[in-house]
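To illustrate the input format used throughout this study, we show a single complete record. The first block contains the structure-token representation of the backbone; no residue identities are included at this stage. The design step must infer an amino acid for every position from geometry alone.
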């Protein structure tokens, strides 16, 4: 049997990204995390502002244990879709997606 404390210590990166993105969106009604399109441009599709992107990335990095300092300004600018964020976090995570 697997240790449940391990799975709660390292949340699934995609699920964490979905939940944290949904939490910062200001569109009404806010979409449920499970219906967010991983290939949609977060700014165009969901109206993600630069401030909310910072809040989103900060919170998802904290939740997944990935140090935000791993990313350059260019890396952050290249994170345009939810899929981009998941891929970038996965490269720096100790837990596989």
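Output of the design step:
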């Amino acid at each position: 049997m697997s240790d449940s404390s391990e799975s709660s210590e390292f949340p699934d990166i995609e699920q964490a990204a979905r939940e944290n993105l949904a939490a910062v969106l200001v569109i009404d009604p806010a979409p449920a995390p499970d219906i967010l399109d991983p290939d949609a441009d977060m700014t165009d599709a969901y109206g993600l502002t630069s401030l909310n992107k910072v809040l989103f990335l900060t919170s998802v990095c904290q939740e997944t244990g990935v140090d935000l300092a791993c990313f350059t300004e260019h890396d952050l600018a290249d994170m345009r879709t939810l899929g981009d964020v998941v891929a970038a976090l996965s490269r720096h995570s100790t837990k596989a997606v």
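Structural context for interpreting the output: Residues 1-10 have pLDDT under 50 and may be disordered. The two ends are 20 Å apart (CA to CA).
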